[in-house]
Structure formats: structure tokens, C-alpha cells
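Table S2 (text version). Query chain:
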Amino acid sequence: MSQQIFVYIFFFTFSSTVFAQALPRHNPVPGGIAVVDLKTNSEKPPEVQFLKRRVMVVKGKNGNWHAVVGIPLTLKKGQRSITVKSATTTKQSFKIKHKKYEFRHIRIPNERMVSPSKKDLERHFKEKPLMVKALKTWTEQDEVPMSFIKPVQGRFSSQFGLRRKYNEQERIRNHTGLDIAAPNGTPIIAPAKGKVIRTGDYFFTGGTVFLDHGQGLITMYCHLSKTDVKAGDILKQGEKIGEVGSTGRVSGPHLHWVVTLNNTKVEPKLFLQEKL
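Corresponding C-alpha cell output:
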């Protein structure tokens, strides 16, 4: 009998370890991530929505289900709530803190990338639905890799969330990715296991690759000079995606790295193994 109890305890502990996984850093600011403990360790995960979009739900190290919520850059500080659907439907609140992003003026040498021609805009509006569809991808997956490594060796040249103005235009845009400056041809690698769901050459983002990591976690790699993968490829962490370039709207060679949760662009650094 004692041996049976030992086996049961071992199996239960091992199973909990298997399903528990690393989570991104909790930073509930505009453009950040709220990791919300749902206070349940039920066998089946609850379904969670935020702003009418489905949210990732995974088991944390304490054995409870956690919602991993991407917060739009446009949201203001204050109380917000997620909708949790299980046996019943409930609301669970969390607080968004204030964050002020810096302003930067960017000079783009190719004026067409700032003031596109009619033909350029026609091309962009044909490409945009394809990119939007890729970022909306949802793949059911129990375990989602969220302990990222840096996708390219280089310096962070333009931080996520910066309020930027191109050339002398009046319009100010938030920077929805993280730029890593590196020489043309520098290898770009997968920060975590993922499936290639789309590749392309687009007007503003140039050579572009989309990776699906599961449950609405999508990463996007832009301005590539060379792409080494195709749609359908399954990449392990560290496998090559392509090479740094200066295609699309750029001021110099770099990787523009985008991370989305629940179709919301968030700070990529929150997924990196090291705090940078």
C-alpha cells in the first residue's frame, strides 16, 4: 500500500511540474502584460477574454491557471477586468499602472516610406489584411514557450512604445516593436519554439516572417535581407530564421521585432530570460 501511495505522490508531483511553465514578467502598464492568477487548478482551463479578445491561459508554478493578458498601448491607467468562463461566468479585475513613453524624432532617408505614392498605398492596403490575419492566429496548445532568448546579437536601438515622428510630419506614432541594430547579414534566430505561419516582402516592413508559439502568442521579424524559412516550418529555439537587412521603412540595418498577445502588441523584453 505504501508503495502505491508513493507512486501516486510521485505521479502527481511530476504531472504538476510538466504542466507548470515559465511565465513572462508581470508588468501591467500600457503595452505591458498582466499575469492574472485565476485562483483555480481545475482540470480544464477556464476560457478568458479581455476587450472581447481571447486570452492565453496556462498553468503557473503554483499549479493554478493564469491568464496572460496583453495590454494595448492605448489604454489608460485604472482598474480593468477579464471575463472568466468556467462552470459560471465571472469577472476578475487587475490594475493598469501609468507609464510615459519617451518621444523621438526619426529621419527616414527614403521619403517614399514616409509619404507613399498612390501605387505604394495600394500595395500596402493589399498586404495589410494578410499581416492582420497572421497576427490574429490562435492555435490551441497546452504548453506555450515563453522563456525567450534574444533573436539577434546587437544593441537595442529603438525601444518598444517610443512616441516617434518621422521626418517633419505632424503625426506621432507609438513604436510597436523593439529594434535591434546589427550589420546586414547578421543571423536572426527563433527566440522560442514556433511554427512559421507566413513570410513575405511588404512595403513598410520589407522581408518579414511570422512565428506562431501557441494560444495567440505571435512573433514578427521585419526588414530582413534574407529569409531562410517558409510557411509550415517548425523551428526549435535558436534555429535560424533569416538575416538582418534594411528593407522597408528603415533608417539603417536592424531587426524590428514584434510580439503580440491576444492580437495586442506588447513589450518583447518581458519574455526574455534575462532582464535587459
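Notes on Table S2: Residues 1-18 have pLDDT under 50 and may be disordered. The chain has two helices and 19 strands.
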